[in-house]
Amino acid sequence: MMRKILIVGILTFAMIASAGLVSAATTVDTTWDGGGYFNTKFTAGDDAHSEFTTNGAFILGEFHGKDYDDNPYSYNVDTVDSFVHASVAGGTMCFTNSRDDSKTSAYGNAGQSSYSFIGTDGTGEMSWGSWTNYATMTNGQYGRSPKTTNGKNFEATGNHNIYHELTDADGDGACIEVYGYGASTTSEIKLQGEKSGGTNSYFNFGNLPVCGDNIAWKNNYATFSGSGTGDFNVHAWADNGLTVGCYGDAWNIPGDGTDDSATYDLHVGYSGVWGNLDFGVSGN
């Protein structure tokens, strides 16, 4: 899957922040505040790993990772949690998460991953987390704090690019990509959660009910709002089929089992104030 990256300006590094590297640790808590480049990596044995990288005229944030070392049900796979809350001015942020182990006989293969990116000549914020265990990868910031300034997961101003992708063990998945053009342009994405795993290697990209209450969360689970001039894109690909939307309004795109035989593309170019109330999609 090709990832398009918006290159914004030329960054002058005023300060080099120290990088953190943690291997097979129980916990890691890292903060940064300044300008320049920062990178931190978290490896939880052979179960999961995460990495966050940022650079810019101003960078601020915190990264938290925890390997629970709990080995539930003696499956030889630990529960692992990582999340980031960060902001940048005139620069970039990139957060990756990978699930590396699974109880394969009952829950299928590992190999699920997520990728989040913000590049801007204005300001950007990211609040996102990943939780993995013997069965699934579950991502989001539901039930955590803090969120971004406006209570979202990803937001940016100015000329910017926001990109977020989830893939399952077979490489099927979905992404949202937003471009904003002009100093006064803003974009905000709320993605309450996503999940991937299972013997049939499914993914669910912002299409999940909370506590089984579908109606309460309709048009409130995977949302976008933008102002100014921009482009909004959602793309999904799967072998066996896709479901677009949810809560009684869903429609299906069939696949025939061959690689990426079901695809979905949504593109909206807008100028003014525009929003999408439910971009959720799932598939396998």
Which characteristics define this entry?
single chain, mainly beta, 284 residues, 1 helix
Structural class: mainly beta
Query: What is the share of helical residues?
Result: under 10%
Tally of strands: 16
Number of contiguous helices: 1
Walk me through what this model shows.
The structure is a single chain. This protein has 284 residues and is mainly β. It has one domain (21-283). The protein contains 1 helix and 16 strands. The protein has one helix at residues 104-107, and strands at residues 20-23, 27-44, 48-67, 80-99, 113-132, 136-139, 154-157, 160-167, 173-191, 194-197, 202-205, 222-238, 241-244, 251-254, 262-276, 281-283. It has a 16-stranded mixed beta sheet that branches. A hairpin with a 4-residue loop joins strand 10 and strand 11 (202-205). The longest helix is centred in the middle third of the chain and has 4 residues, at 104-107. The radius of gyration is 18 Å and the shape is globular. The model is unreliable at 1-24 (pLDDT under 50).
